Structure prediction request, 538 residues.
Amino acid sequence: MSVNDVGGRRRFEDSEYTLHIYPGSIAEGTIYCPITARKTSTAAEVIDSLINKLQLEKTKCYVLAEVKEFGGEEWILNPTDCPVQRMMLWPRMALENRISGEDYRFLLREKNLDGSIHYGSLQSWLRVTEERRRMVERGFLPQPQQKDYDDLCSLPDLNEKTLLENLRNRFKQEKIYTYVGSILIVINPFKFLPIYNPKYVKMYDNHQLGKLEPHIYAVADVAYHAMLQRRKNQCIVISGESGSGKTQSTNFLIHHLTALSQKGFASGVEQIILGAGPVLEAFGNAKTAHNNNSSRFGKFIQVNYQETGTVRGAYVEKYLLEKSRLVYQEHNERNYHVFYYLLAGASEEERSAFHLKQPEEYHYLNQMTKKPLRESWDDYCNDSEPDCFSVEGEDLKHDFERLQLAMEMVGFLPKTRRQIFSLLSAILHLGNIRYKKKTYRDDSIDICNPEILPIVSDLLEVKEEMLFEALVTRKTVTVGEKLILPYKLAEEQQSRRDLVWEIKINIAVALMANMSFILNPVCPQWEELPVCSLTVDT
Ligand SMILES: Nc1ncnc2c1ncn2[C@@H]1O[C@H](COP(=O)(O)OP(=O)(O)OP(=O)(O)O)[C@@H](O)[C@H]1O
Prediction:
């Protein structure tokens, strides 16, 4: 790096730096090409200068990749990223040894037509990495400054301090995966790392665990090949606290498991499992204090394979749905996303058919946010004060459209979709029912605002009298006898809570039934074929 200006802050911003870009096989004969750039120069501008300087084909699409360890992961820069700023984050040693140092550098890469990155021969890339590793081991190349262990079992001195230090060291180098024997520890980077592209799928295909840098693909790969070789079902359990990245890791696993089975309708299964994401997410995720998109349920995904390793179908099940969230949420938390999507995205016709109101008018949504009522949903968009109805960066109208599309993809007919939205609206209206004592002497309950009953009966498509009975009385069975007992005022919450939970469970069952059907198309020949399955449990 050379700085050609040493003035005040303004002038420092304008300073010029020299970037050394390695074009590799794109410009044979050029080891690196020096490009002058400023702190604010974008990757797109640097690439333009490179194209002119190296006289590259202008019709092709190029990207810059940042490498922090030769032969290691490549971080592809977006066209708007500023390479100089990235370079300024490199350690001083790396900047001082620009020419002889080989660890930190920018590479020029070509983009394929499908948007993937052209890496040239993977084998030669792997060979270089391996050779380098061997040379480091023999002492021909210096050891990395801070030695880290990719398997905690190999730590020479294993205690809490060394364990955490090792994980921290690795994380600083954006190595988010570390083994403990056959267990994989993942530290959520909260940013996208380009280590999930096809190059990595290929690289981890059929490799013994621990041979390469730890990766979630390695775990998927070991499970897949163990299933095929030993002909035994395999199970991967993902656990962690809320927001630690379980859902994201599940998606990476499913991606790799289906990529390994390229034949058959593998990609279709992946598309459905992952495509069903928006549906599961809308009905099963909510904003919590720790995670704006927290899954409030456990997920069991079973991918079934034929003996040949081809995906045969899949099975997804939700369990332990957090039912209490429907009727009560903690401070700074929300009810399930789907309610907010519906209220923001429904058309005028749907608003009137489902008797929709503003979110603040529903007890099940406004318990933690007591703010003055707004005139219309659009008012929320102009409100800069944060509240629980809007989350930064969220576009609820768009999310509702996306949900409708995803439901269509998972096989819901328009009529079923309407029924589900009608049930959701019924849940919200049920929450607004208020109770009182029937009479001064009679402790059983009555409804204060009976005008809600016709709305809910219309939405649930049940008779008003039946609904009233269900809300104020309960059935119990004693020895050989069925009793209908009135709810007492102290039990008023329970009276509608049971009904609300029942509705939500029925919606969840309908969702799962639909998904199971679409993920397991009936194919007569397959019925006779042996199957093995791989399950992912979060
Ligand atoms: N490997 C990863 N790379 C980049 N971002 C990640 C990774 N893992 C998780 N994240 C990000 O972290 C956030 C939380 O992750 P995720 O929703 O998967 O957590 P979770 O453990 O499923 O949470 P919850 O239990 O609350 O549902 C997401 O915004 C996700 O994009």
User: Anything to note?
Assistant: The radius of gyration is 29 Å. Residues 165 and 317 are 38 Å apart (CA to CA). Residues 1-12, 121-125, 381-386, 522-530 have pLDDT under 50 and may be disordered.
